[in-house]
Amino acid sequence: MRNIWYLLICFLLTSVSLNAQAPVKAKTPAPAPLRGEPVIINRDTLLKLYTGQGLFNVQERAAIVTKRIEALVARMDFNPDSLTLKDDSTLSVIYYNSQIVMAVNNQDATFTELNRPQLAASYLHILKQKLGNYFTNNGTQQVVVNILEAIAVIVLLIALIWALFKASRWLKLKLLRAWETRMDKLASAGAPVVYAHRLLPVITGVLRIARIIVIILLVYLALPVLFYIFPSSKPISVQLLGYVVTPFKSILLAIVHYIPNLLTIAVIYLVTRYIVKLVKFIANEIALGNFTINGFYAEWAMPTYNIIRVLLFAFMFVVIFPYLPGSDSKIFQGVTVFLGILFSLGSSSAISNMVAGIVLTYMRPYKIGDRIKVGDVMGDVVEKNLLVTRLRTIKNEDITIPNATILSGHTINYTTVANTMGLILNTTVTIGYDVPWQTVHHLLIAAAEATDGILADKKPFVLQTALNDFNVSYQLNAYTALSNQMAGIYSRLHQNIQDKFNEAGVEIMSPHYTSLRDGNHIQIPDDYVANGYVKPGFKVE
């Protein structure tokens, strides 16, 4: 575990050092990086050569030096301390006993800040250290130690996985007991628990998936530790660890770099939020009547607040959009445009209803509780929003009407002036020409005055609307303030009209009724027929 922590720290320090270079200067073309030929032993780069020597180019020279070092480390009697350095006026040569390992010329030094002897000395130090570590790490004792460390890591991994299974089983049992207790309480309280029981397999499945994910994570983290124990597999360990550390480092750096934009977004959001609160306060005061504006009705206050709130948040999003992560990405912009077009095409009817709802709000054709008629539908308004208006008929039928339909047609409101001027209810009867119109007027007005729900302070009146072939049409008009009880009032009014006319012995000729009057019985109920009445016979002259 010490090795893996060391490796993690090295990764983080390397990331910080690479991202904390000298201050950014004006952009200038960067010089092309020097590409040397590496000398690699056991997957470890010892040094790089940047120039050729003699008849060999740099690639051939690096290959020759690599073969010489590989031949040395293959010897059973190799001792890194036998490496020596000899300098003359033109070359610095590294020997192993009397065998040449590599030579350093003056041109090699031009690619570094060291002179030739210093560069050769640094190469000698690297060879002694790297090759000495190679033999130390590949000794019999060290191999045994490495194997024991690997076994310890595997045992620890198995122990962690076993503990994870135990913990997940304990958690599952505890969850089952708590769930059963909760279900018993719900059942005793009379609550339905059928759907709650269906959720239990989902929860246990989530626990199982979480356990599998944790096991995979433990195995993946154990692999770099195992590979790092053996020197020959250290590059694989670094690579595996890089798959985890590199994305994590990128995420952390992205978060740190995004902090200024995040603060800007927070300030814009807070300012917008407090402006919305101010608008809401003013709207509430207007709705309560504490604050008035000429020409602005109190019922407009909250709809206007909702519109302003939507506009403010839309403006806030427009301002915030450039500060969102990925807003400069062509893919992000393309997806945003696609979603906008998709929303526009798929919600054309919804948008038309929303616009109609806003227009209806400021037209004020009706409000909640009003009795209205839209087309052939009449009922009380129980709900209105930006999309639809819901009416409840006298049969308790809830009818939903799109706002666009209401806006495109005409609407009759029976409640608007019912409490002030009174709603006029009217009904028409036809009476024969043999009955004086004064008598009909008197009977109709008496029937209206005897009806519950008709205003007593506004006198009913009668209009003669037509002189038909066999009868006269009389229209009775009476005032009421109970627009929501129109059906009941009409029914009582018709009952009273029948009673008044029957009591007076006047026939109601609705629907049209024709007869030979001198030969037929009078058309009123028998209870209202005068005592001693005799049906007349036919008189033929």
From TrEMBL:
Subcellular location: Cell membrane
One GO CC term, this protein: plasma membrane
Sorted UniProt keywords: Cell membrane, Membrane, Signal, Transmembrane, Transmembrane helix
Bilayer topology term: Multi-pass membrane protein
SUPFAM superfamilies assigned: Mechanosensitive channel protein MscS (YggB), C-terminal domain, Sm-like ribonucleoproteins
The organism's taxonomic lineage, starting at the top: Bacteria, Pseudomonadati, Bacteroidota, Sphingobacteriia, Sphingobacteriales
Signal peptide: 1-22
Protein known as: Mechanosensitive ion channel family protein
Residue ranges constituting the Mechanosensitive ion channel MscS C-terminal domain according to the UniProt record: 426-508
Primary residence: membrane
Originating species: Mucilaginibacter ginsenosidivorax
Gene Ontology MF, one: mechanosensitive monoatomic ion channel activity
Residue span(s) of domain Mechanosensitive ion channel MscS: 350-415
InterPro entries noted in UniProt: LSM_dom_sf (IPR010920), MS_channel_C (IPR049278), MscS_archaea/bacteria_type (IPR045275), MscS_beta-dom_sf (IPR023408), MscS_channel_2nd (IPR006685), MscS_channel_C_sf (IPR011066)
Family to which this protein belongs: Belongs to the MscS (TC 1.A.23) family.
Highest taxon of the lineage: Bacteria
Transmembrane segments: 143-165, 209-230, 250-271, 307-325, 337-363
